[in-house]
Sequence to fold (586 residues):
Amino acid sequence: MNLKGKAWKFGNDIDTDVIIPARYLNTSDPAELAKHCMEDIDANFSRKVEKGDLIIAGDNFGCGSSREHAPISIKAAGVSCIIAKSFARIFFRNAINIGLPILICPEAAEKIAEGDQVEVDLAAGSIKNLTKNEVYQAQPFPPFMQEIISAGGLIPYVDQKRREKS
Amino acid sequence: MGMTITEKILADHAGEKFVEPGQFVNVKLDLVLANDITGPVAIKEFKKLNTPQVFNREKIALVPDHFTPNKDIQSAQQAKELREFAKEQELTNYFEVGEMGIEHALLPEKGLVLPGDLVIGADSHTCTYGALGAFSTGVGSTDLAAGMALGETWLMVPESIKFVFKGKLKPWVSGKDLILYTIGQIGVDGALYKAMEFTGEAIEELSMDGRFTMTNMAIEAGAKNGIIAPDEKTIAYVRERAKRPYKVFSSDPDAKYAQIFEFDASDIEPQVAFPHSPANTKPISEAAGIPIDQAVIGSCTNGRIEDLRITAQILKGKKVSPYTRLIIIPGTQEIYRQAVKEGLVEIFLDAGAVVSTPTCGPCLGGHMGILAEGEKCIATTNRKFRGRMGHVTSEIYLASPAVAAASAVKGRIAAPEEVR
Fold:
């Protein structure tokens, strides 16, 4: 799967409360959540972001609450991939489980600037900065997680596993 | 080679004799938990699996605690989805308004989590149960849906960090101060993906309520779980609640740790965490004086009976400062009842505080105490990201019940000694 778009940069410790504030958690409708994506850190984000764009962040992205509404709002806003130096663990699991591509790559997180055009080859874990003409290599996922990713998320994966059992 | 308590519980639930950090294990679940925010999403995903029934109707707990009693029509709709699923699946551990409490105060009280258990919950503060010597961790709704269907989940065995608290606590210093101090030392990602194991003389001295406060906030340092090995206090707590057998684990003397921190608890003052990070912690001597508009005492961190007793000790015969709101939220109906019996609620009312039904409410900016533009609040809750309790310019300071109560009396951040 190739993902391509413009980079939106964020800093360290981006928490789930700024990704999707709790005042909007009285719904789980992805389209509704998308309207408020990143609202408390960038009020206009959901209007500016275009389909395919990428979020580039520092350490501990998605810290805080377990709300799956956070990766759901990012995915529904059109973001194709998040590249960060590191992720908070619950967010990491949630993103993989709902089929939102994420990559851990400190080099890319450092070198990609806001507005750069970025292309990601997910299977290879390679990140191309088309603006700067650079290539960065993300950490590969363990085989166990690769299976979940290639199944398209946890629910299709579990479904598959249960069918194999019966 | 030795194992830590966390590794032993994971090995036990994976059917392995030995596990080590970095290893992926498939583990059996003793309890699976969701609330009125994460539950509806989990139920939607569960239904995609075409599984007629949950793996065990006695091992799922659904607690409508976040936006309940329903704050608006949409929240009512979400609570209804939870209720209907509980009915349809004939779940034995659904707790309706009137018997529910804040999930992480409620489940231990009901004896639903016991030492040696492995619990996942679609709430990040699920790590609270580590105080019982259980492994518990927060997950999202999709993980929870799979857990409800299969009764198992995958986990990576975390490395452990040991925190040894030597010495005796100073007056008014509580589990909250120890954990705020710890997060201040290691940062909000200081324990990312790792287990935080708390031990030492000062931990032994803490009551179960104080220990729950500490493990509750392990997630604020990015940890997978927080854990305290069971001792006589733990066993006394579970003895009157347990309805099934349990296993007591402890770390081997030669267990491996990624890091070991030693703190002298007798040096630690009451702590205040400043906006907007729980790691931005200062001793009360450097925090006193900041004016506040509201104080909140409650939450899964500090809404237990000991917290209310300390609050009453500070408030007795005093008044909340003019133009300051003090909101007190008992964690469960049982705690509420106990607070009435002991006369604590009367002390709160005499002081001019309001006492709410159990709810997560203001902690996550749901309802029951939302902040206006630029307002400042001191809270005994666990988290204070920008805008969490209301307007994006409002500010939250985290502290213990003693400091929050003293601050409500003074109308500014104050040390307990200024009032008592």
Notes: The radius of gyration of chain B is 20 Å. The CA atoms of residues 297 and 328 of chain B lie 5 Å apart.
